[in-house]
Design brief:
The protein is mainly α and about 300 residues long. It has 2 domains: about 90 residues, no CATH class; about 180 residues, hpI Integrase, Chain A (Orthogonal Bundle). It contains 13 helices and 2 strands, in the order ααααααααββααααα. A two-stranded antiparallel sheet has the order 1-2. Helix 2 packs across helix 5. The longest helix is centred in the first third of the chain and has 22 residues. It is elongated. About 5% of the residues have low confidence.
Length: about 300
């Protein structure tokens, strides 16, 4: 069955333009809406606005059961329910009329940072494995931006040649189009400058700074694949991802005395509660040190 395009198109524009959600969030929420509509068509034959308004808690339980049967876990189920409620609300449902269904309890995960030595070793290994010197310089600069400036991978890849030559402070556009100023360490600025000098495709101010091997915008999947290879070669945890470098940036700053408000601004978190999780990280790290060092731990 073909999906009702007005429902889907309107949802996309609302998320991307009105709510200014990230590309990743828009993609995930669109996929959820399409799955719900497909499920409604398969089970009831109707998938329109009136049918959406008539959904009951039992309907949602049945939908969630179908997703569970596909193997999704608690965290994914909770996100799916959140996206479904947002979609129903957009279609005209009032909060009181939207069917409620308690999602599974999800224990908040604690980010797992890696040590400063491992972070640098990871970046060096990725650069060493690059096929060409300019690609090595590119990968080194990107990973230093994640670890040395706390950028998300999407934020790093959205930078353009307008940041050149790199200054002491970098203006970053984060989630929902929110901009923030991030201090740039000399080593990170030098890595960016070295890459810009070697890049064979130029660094026009209105074009992506980081390029793929053929000159197009670099895809985040390439960076993630390189990091996966490096962590295997170095024997690092499966949790060693590009985003773990951002976690490490935050955790190491907090451990050196940074206050939560300053860290919130550096990371671009909309709410302080998102930043407070790093206090748990620091406490967990101290406990690990105690357990490993204390003779009676």
């Amino acid at each position: 069955m073909s999906l009702p395009s007005p429902l889907i198109a309107g949802w996309h524009d609302h998320l991307a333009l009105d709510r200014r959600r990230s590309v990743h969030t828009v993609r995930a929420y669109m996929a959820t809406a399409q799955r719900l509509l497909n499920w409604m068509a398969d089970t009831g034959g109707v998938a329109d606005q009136a049918a959406l308004a008539a959904l009951t808690p039992s309907d949602l339980r049945a939908y969630v059961a179908s997703r569970r049967a596909e193997g999704i876990g608690n965290a994914s189920t909770a996100r799916e329910l959140s996206a479904v409620r947002a979609f129903l609300r957009f279609q005209g449902g009032e909060d009181g009329s939207i069917p409620t269904l308690r999602g599974p309890r999800v224990k908040p995960g604690i980010p797992r940072p890696i040590s400063p030595d491992d972070a640098i070793a990871l970046a060096e290994d990725v650069a060493d494995e690059a096929r060409e010197p300019w690609i090595a310089a590119r990968d080194w600069a990107i990973l230093l931006l994640l670890y040395g400036a706390g950028l998300r991978i999407g934020e790093a890849l959205s930078l353009t040649g307008a940041i050149l030559p790199p200054a002491d402070v970098l203006r970053v556009t984060g989630k929902r189009g929110k901009t923030r100023l991030v201090p740039l360490l000399p080593q990170v600025a030098q890595a960016i400058a070295d890459y810009a000098r070697l890049c064979p495709y130029g660094t026009a101010k209105d074009e992506p700074l980081f390029r793929g091997a053929r000159g197009g915008p670099l895809d985040a999947g390439i960076v993630r694949k390189s990091v996966r290879g490096a962590r295997v070669r170095l024997g690092l945890s499966d949790r060693t991802t590009p985003h773990a470098l951002r976690h490490s940036f935050a955790t190491h700053l907090l451990g050196r005395g940074a206050d939560l408000r300053s860290l919130q601004e550096l990371l671009g978190h909309a709410s302080l509660s998102s930043t407070q999780i790093y206090t748990q990280v620091d406490a967990a790290h101290l406990l690990d040190v105690y357990r490993n060092a204390h003779p009676r731990a």
